[in-house]
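Give me a protein, keeping tokens residue-aligned:
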Amino acid sequence: MKRFIFITVLLHFSFFAFTQNKYGVYVFVAEKCPISIYMAKPLQEAFQKYGNEVDFYTVFPMRNSTNETAQKFLEKYHLTDFKIKLDNYQGFSKKLGATITPEVIVLDAQGEVAFRGRISNAYRAPGKMKHGVRKNELVEVLQKLTNGESIEQPWSPAVGCYITFHN
């Protein structure tokens, strides 16, 4: 039992202790998920607008992700300002309830979920892009949060590739 408690505390510390700002944006991505790749531009936009006020992390929840593959992904899609969090054992993903890549979860400084959902409304379903004007919902969320407003539920669910969980 003591070992389990230690691992839980270590997991909590390793992901939450590095948030320097009031909010941490955790984006769950997979290197080979087409929608994760497509969302790079809206993520860049969110970082450009809020990178000084909010901490940005990319969480790689797939077992085969490594520091090397994660770094290559960030470099290729111009997301190198995001911190890398490998979650090969998927404890963090399970703890936060992430099930899709890309999925964004915004945590406040106490580790409470302030928002969970999609990055933009560009996809209605996997393989089905929305026609017309698209909006960067993450930017809207961060604007409200940094202005002291809360985000009303229900939040728009993420659309993308399912995270394959291993026991």
Notes: Residues 48 and 121 are 19 Å apart (CA to CA). The longest strand covers residues 54-60. Residues 18-162 form a domain with the Glutaredoxin fold (CATH 3.40.30.10). The chain is about 35% helix and 20% strand.
